[in-house]
Amino acid sequence: MTVSLSIIECLTEYANNPLGLDVRRPRLFWRLESNDRSAAQAYYQVLVASSQERLDQGVADQWDSGKVASDQSIHIEYAGDKLISEQTYYWKVRVWDTQGEASAWSQTAYWSMGLLSRADWKAKWIGRKAEKGVDMQPSPYLRKSFQLAKQVKRAFVYATALGLYDLRLNGSRIGALFAPGWTDYETRVQVQAYEITDQLTVGENVFGAILGDGWYAGTVGFLGKNVYGERPFLLLQARIEYLDGTSELIISDSSWQAAKGAILYSDLIKGEAYDARLEPTGWDQAGYQAASSWELPDVRTGYNGLLVATIEPPVRIMQVRKPVSFRRTEEGTFIYDMGQNMVGWTELKVSGAAGDQVTVSHAEMLNPDGSLYLDNLRVAVQQDHYVLKGTGEERYEPHFTFHGFRYVELIGYPGEPDLDTIVGKVVHSEMAETGRLETNDEMVNRLYANITWGQRGNFLSVPTDCPQRDERLGWTGDAQIFARTAAYNMNVSRFFSKYMQDMIDSQLPSGAFTDVAPDAGWIRHKMWNANLNWFAPDNAGWGDAGVIIPWTLYLMYGDIRILENNYQAMADWVSYLRDNTEDLVRPDYANYGDWLSIDADTPKEVLATAYFAYSTQLLAKIAGVLGREQDQTQYESLFASIAQAFRNAFVGSDGRIHGETQAVYVLALQFNLLTEELNKMAIEHLTADISARGDRLSTGFLGVGYLLPALTDHQKLDVAYTLLTQEEFPSWMYSIKHGATTIWERWDGWTEHKGFQTPSMNSFNHYSLGSVGEWMFRYMAGIEADPAAPGFKHAIIRPRPGGKLDRVKASYDSLYGTIEVAWHLSASSKVFRIEVSIPVNTTATIYVPGRVCVIDGVENTSGTWEIEGCQPLGSTEEVSWFRLGAGRYTFESDLLAIKASV
């Protein structure tokens, strides 16, 4: 028999050959391929060995799972011998199909463990003493020269910082940008591991590091600088193993050397100043002659937080973009248009005399007179200053800062620049793009592009609220409403797993989750700031992220561990909410409500009670997944009681909900708070409000993500499509009509009548209102996860054609493989055609609008179908549905149900 399955990808903890893990039971993943329809895995066997040689010989000295009867190919927990610090583990897998045929063994994958106990660390924290009288401190340069007399077998280095580090070895950079990432430094800091075997040589070797203030000692949003500490420190430990079986450690300690260099300051919010004349050329390489003039480092006595393995994906330069145009201003400066609002920085190419200074200034928008619009930056300074050394062509890009911008102004540039003078570097956390979506409507396509650019611009270590002004905080409410959209667009499994740890670290003793994570002193700031007048101890829709995000990761990736690890924190949150109610109705003290809604004031007690119910409802489901039956029953009962309390307090017999905003109806409908009869009345009130506003929305951050789903789920698909493609203010398309290339923070960020909104809060790169992307995938394209078989083990394919669209093509890369849906609506023949691709080792249920008349080119003349891999489940005048195995399928239907839309 022909073997039907082949293994094409093996991952450990969602990553390709990760280094320095500290999880004691790593999870293994593999992806399968096959040319056979309905191909599926029936058994698997995993071998794990302590060396490549042993694994090649079939000697699994760490774990042999045996032949396991299972169709699971993701989240397979390692169950072998105890894992040891700094050990590397090699693994491979084979599977059997449902016919009993075995696949070939996979390619070898591996992972390594980091330093698993504090006792394993011998290194010291080192930095450089602050310079007196200097407000913005120069970045410390650190170096360590060491000799190797023997051939190296293998070597790893473990590094982290209180602050940020740029690590070098023998002149070459090691690792990613903005490492170790942003955490609550009072609780934990992440450690990165790198293999350096091939970069070491016999003789002199040199470690070099430049430190940045980062979030630790630099400016954090509007919370000021030195939120966690006064200056940065490095911790580094390298283990070098020799061919003769011996090993040695190179550690950060008092034997290193320190100096200041060319970076006069580099701040996340304030930008960077760099004097190239001060570059210590060759400082990170062997043979550096000026080392004798360097200082001894400052050694920190210790650090009380946890040293943990990195969870989040690394931050990298993900794209390089050239400007589309530039012009000379009357002042003699040069303004470039990058053609896209982006996040990162510009690399400058310049020639001139020593001492010439060029300032590179960044902004998202232009003023009416063509100058950079800087008012919305508040106290942020999106400028980098470069002083030339005067040695021919020079290139410069900043080190420990980033900017949000479309426009770049060169001030003081010597000579005449051109389109090659600058390039833009797009920077964000490295997450594979998993979603693609295209329609026949170019404005809808631009909307989807804007949503993805908003994610690129704000997913940098944490999900920030904006990348340009003096904020850039990890607002939890923004994150939860966008989480499902984010998970369609990119693989955010590691990104949000780390962010959940940030939320747990910030959770208050009361059980309340904070508004931002890491907290960075926000709670203290808002509670003591009389000008803000914001004293709410929690905020509905923000704190609820602590339940919504884990549930989203479970749905999209089948991740049960995220539920297990955060269960107690979620339970504490719901208990906190319950304890702070009156007859299960939440108070109205929230600071934010349906933030930045437009001409609609949603009562905060209505919103807070709705979200209390939703978190409770999700927690009941989570308890069920985890087998906590008693908890499940308890939370189901509590949810029913909250829903009743909601109806008693806020819902009239005519279905009108207190406040009568679009948001109150949307949340009540989507959170299952109404009876069936009240649902019918509520949806009519919702659509009446939309109609009365000229077919326009009014929802803010918390309501907008549920608006189109609520309409679609309650048979108002036509209204959902009308809102999607509405071009008048307020709408998604209004900003696009006026040149937006990202999602704006507010519907009225700029309008034809008023120009720019208040500059105190007016970001043009924000993702919250882009949560409509979830609807575009789940409803418009019809790619939906099944909570009963999460992670798209079983997918639900149910496209909803409508509006002006006659063609939609979308795909999503699940952990099992790519799900593809492409539908086309023929207005002339009233024929609906859909092509679907289902990955190997998964199944799907597809709902096709109207009565299906053709499958894979085969017409139905007998009243029954016999199509390989396709089992009919039923049909009505409105829809036909089938169960599918893996493979490609084509359906055509007569569209009886939606002729009115054509």
From TrEMBL:
GO MF annotations in UniProt: hydrolase activity
Recorded catalytic activity of this chain's protein: Hydrolysis of terminal non-reducing alpha-L-rhamnose residues in alpha-L-rhamnosides
Matches recorded under SUPFAM superfamilies: Six-hairpin glycosidases (SSF48208)
Domain Bacterial alpha-L-rhamnosidase N-terminal: 150-319
Keywords: Hydrolase
Pfam families referenced in this protein's UniProt entry, alphabetically: Bac_rhamnosid, Bac_rhamnosid6H, Bac_rhamnosid_C, Bac_rhamnosid_N, Ig_Rha78A_N
Residues of the Alpha-L-rhamnosidase C-terminal domain: 782-851
EC number(s) per entry: 3.2.1.40
Principal EC category: hydrolase
Domain Alpha-L-rhamnosidase concanavalin-like: 328-428
Domain Alpha-L-rhamnosidase six-hairpin glycosidase: 433-779
Coiled coil, from the record: none
Protein name: alpha-L-rhamnosidase
Organism: Paenibacillus anseongense
Origin organism lineage: Bacteria, Bacillati, Bacillota, Bacilli, Bacillales
